[in-house]
TrEMBL record:
<dbReference type="InterPro" id="IPR034660">
    <property type="entry name" value="DinB/YfiT-like"/>
</dbReference>
<dbReference type="InterPro" id="IPR024344">
    <property type="entry name" value="MDMPI_metal-binding"/>
</dbReference>
<feature type="domain" description="Mycothiol-dependent maleylpyruvate isomerase metal-binding">
    <location>
        <begin position="11"/>
        <end position="135"/>
    </location>
</feature>
<dbReference type="InterPro" id="IPR017520">
    <property type="entry name" value="CHP03086"/>
</dbReference>
<dbReference type="Pfam" id="PF11716">
    <property type="entry name" value="MDMPI_N"/>
</dbReference>
<protein>
    <recommendedName>
        <fullName>Mycothiol-dependent maleylpyruvate isomerase metal-binding domain-containing protein</fullName>
    </recommendedName>
</protein>
<dbReference type="InterPro" id="IPR017517">
    <property type="entry name" value="Maleyloyr_isom"/>
</dbReference>
């Protein structure tokens, strides 16, 4: 895959984070617990991949994910890297057809139509946060750069509240004075920045 297959920098950065997180998982770590309390690392990958395919499907009208991303089975249809790469390729290729100034892009998050920059940000937010879930679940450092976290925080503050009602995000945690950009984003999304398995 061309790892820069999208003109959308935020999506490319989020996909890079997810790619690195998946590549960093050791063979025996796919069953480890994650910050998503009901899911292991494999299930988080399935969910993240399914969401990327979901965004692509809304844009292109093509097929959606093979299984419900919110009920991941824990059984992959291919190698983890293949599952991740195929989903990210579908997403990047779909977003490559969307112009920067489009005001109503079909997306799988309420209200199902968003301006292009916000829609691609929502897609990137999903990939980047699940990259963090996978990385910290397997004892690796956060893949969230300050720049990416700042951009995604702006997106999150504009789209996440309606999603909490569906259980897509936990209630926000109280911010702390010493939070860096990544920690502030994670707390807003209901995640503890100091989470460990």
């Amino acid at each position: 895959m061309n790892e820069n297959a999208t003109m959308w920098t935020v999506l490319a950065e989020a996909h890079r984070a997810l790619r690195d997180a998946v590549r960093g998982v050791a063979a025996g770590d796919w069953d480890r617990p994650t910050p998503c309390a009901e899911w292991n690392v494999t299930q988080v990958l399935q969910h993240a991949a399914g969401d990327q395919i979901g965004f692509a499907s809304f844009i292109t009208g093509g097929p959606g994910p093979a299984e419900n991303p919110f009920a991941p089975s824990g059984r992959l249809a291919a190698s983890p890297e293949t599952v991740a790469e195929e989903a990210m390729r579908a997403s990047a290729d779909a977003w490559a057809t969307v112009g920067e100034d489009e005001q109503e892009v079909s997306v799988p998050v309420p209200p199902n139509k968003l301006p292009a920059r916000l829609g691609v940000g929502a897609c990137a937010l999903d990939a980047a946060v699940h990259a963090w879930d996978i990385a910290v679940a397997t004892g690796r450092p956060s893949p969230l750069t300050p720049e990416l976290a700042r951009e995604l925080t702006d997106v999150a503050q504009r789209i996440v509240e309606p999603l909490r009602a569906f259980g897509a995000y936990a209630p926000a945690l109280e911010a702390r004075d010493d939070d860096d950009d990544a920690a502030a984003l994670l707390r807003y999304l209901g995640r503890r920045p100091d989470w460990t398995a």
